[in-house]
Amino acid sequence: MSVETGIVEDLKSKFTDAITDASVQRQARIILTAKSEAVINVASYLKENLGFDFVVSVCGAEMPQEDLFTIIYHFWSSSKKILITLKTKVPKKAPKIQSITPVYESANWHERETHEMWGVKFIKHPDLGGLLLPEGWKDLPPQRKEFKLTG
Amino acid sequence: MSVMRVSWGPQHPASGQMRIILDVDGDMVVNAIPSVGYTHRCIEKLAENRRYYQIVPLVERVCNLDAFNATLGYIQAVEELMGLTIPERAQHIRVMMAEMGRIMSHLYWLAIYGIMPGFLTMIMWPIGDRELFLDLAEMVTGCRVTYPYFMIGGVRADLPAGFAERATKTLNFFENRLKDYERMMYKNKIYEMRAKGIGVLKAADAINLGVVGPNLRGSGIKADTRKDEPYQAYDKFDFEIPTEERGDCDARARVRFREIQQSISIIRQALREMPEGPVQVKAPLRPPAGEVYKKIEASRGEMGFYIISDGSDKPCRLKISSPSFRNLAALPFLGRGVTMADIPVIYFSLDLFALDIDR
Amino acid sequence: MTSLIIGKIRGNRVITKIVNWARLSSLWPVHFTTGCCSPEEMALFMPRYDAERFGVLMVPSSLRQCDFLVVLGLVTNKMAKRLKLVYDQMAEPKYVMAVGACAISGGLFYDSPTVLKGIDQILPVDVYVPGCPPRPEVWIQGIRLLQEKIRKGK
Question: Would you state the pLDDT for residue C29?
């Protein structure tokens, strides 16, 4: 697991303040936690310097007893065959974060879905229009825990 | 230039419950904008309201053409979270059924891909031959299309008596049929005119857009989860990952055709080298708290399952990274500057499935 | 005078029987496959089960030529508007068949915020074919039930 440990050490030394937690979960799995304003810089570094060429997904999550949304990015390196899970937190009241679409073009549709399902605003995203929900959806973003299922 | 907006779908025999908004100038397409969400069921939200074993049929219906691979992907993610070791025999059976699922899905794709340029024979033959594999699946699981067979901990029951003989007979017959397919379609001048050189996706663009599966392999990139991150018993099997260099519609079609041939070889190896032993272990109701990301090579591409568990019997979060959603970005890219008649061939060569996109 | 003749023709039992026989023998469906039942639909019209021998021809042409609407699979609220539009465009007499648990009642997605819990909320349904997905044999029985219904003049 020396490659994974090497990547973790590299990121920790480069982003001493921005990355608050970095660990190797198992072989080919690294989990990072970063501050929301630093995500765009970490993403650029992963793409240009460490060879993480694919965005696998961008999604939201809500942990119990927290007044924050967690935004989770998954990056995959086709050369190293390693997956990085990058987590960051944004406040529930006004959830917004810089979009990584200028760096990773393939993040476009994922961020659009996260915006629709969680209500997170991605700044500088080219088009945050509706995607999956019916037109004119006025209710809460459905993936939030406060949106209750009926039936 | 005068541009007219034409809507293809969502109710259309060929659009597959997806709407493609085409901006056309005469016969040339200026823009192809996919509009999705017509089959969105909020499966990820529903999963938070169900126990882990109740989510299996939900996940199956994300991509039910490829039901074995979809359920296997989810189940093995839960098993990793629970720290279960699955018996060897169950793993071999799973690989065999997953490859059978891949053949079934590719045959369905071939049928739809065949009918779009107007090739009626190529919808009848693959769907007819697919029935043979549905019979095999029914022999093992009791069902034709959606299977209550894979479970957390192994498979529900052992293979029935006579399965190996029947499967071998089917594979021998089908391998001969593949020669007919090749002669009828892939070496057909009319098909070549409609698919060669159309919808070219270069390797760099494919990576940039984030496409996966046969679409990526059709552009020359050898990426397949079965070799990159082997799961179940795949590391014990001998098979190749087919790639093509041209990146056009025909290249993607040829990759899928050669994958069918590789799947037949894997099934034969599984039947020959099937180990003895139990087929299931007992799984707990609640996994420990934690998270897992596990991916599988479904027939449309890499399918990932990210589960966050809080230690209860229902997941805190289930995220399904579906291959068609990631491949969707290729459609507006390839649909620009082509004629209207090329759009169906490009669309179906990408093998986009609306249910997979919407979840 | 013309309306008197038409009235006499309509009232004639023999002619009505012949007309009903013609209708039930050539039911052309509108393709409205929304969900996971699509492989079974393909299987129904292809070599092994061959629904064409019952007169059910899958014609990928205009809605206005078709006799019955097969709603196959789940219908979301986003799609429901389009479903109603498709139904309204069809010419009379028209029939509706709800195939699959999701079309009948929402099925597996009973608590989903975006799924319509049964198409009979927006359309009058003639035949229900249960299953998830229904086997082609069950579906053929559904077609026979519809044909029986037409034969009896309902």
Answer: 84
pLDDT tens digits along C72-116: 888 888 888 888 988 888 888 889 999 989 889 888 888 888 888
CATH superfamily of A2-94: NADH:ubiquinone oxidoreductase Nqo5 subunit (3.30.460.80)
pTM of the model: 0.92
**Domain edges within chain B:** 4-358
Q: How far A142 CA sits from the closest chain C CA (Å)?
A: 8
CA angle, corner A14, sides to A11 and A15, nearest 5? 80
pLDDT at A83: 93
User: How far apart are alpha carbons C83 and C139 in whole angstroms?
Assistant: 21
Which fold would CATH assign to domain C2-151? Rossmann fold (3.40.50)
> Domain extents for chain C?
2-151
Phi and psi, residue B178, nearest 5°: -60, -30
Rounded to a whole number, what is the distance in Å from the CA of C149 to chain B's nearest CA? 27
Task: Using an 8 Å CB-CB cutoff, list chain B residues near A133.
Answer: 37, 40
For chain A, domain boundaries: 2-94
A126, A120 in Cβ contact below 8 A? no
CATH architecture of B4-358: Orthogonal Bundle (1.10)
Interface test with A, best of C78, C79, C109 (most A CBs within 10 A): C78
Asked if residues B146 and B67 have their Cβ atoms less than 8 Å apart, the reply is: yes
ipTM associated with this complex? 0.93
Cβ under 8 Å to A: B residues 302-321: 302, 304, 306, 308, 310, 316-317, 319, 321
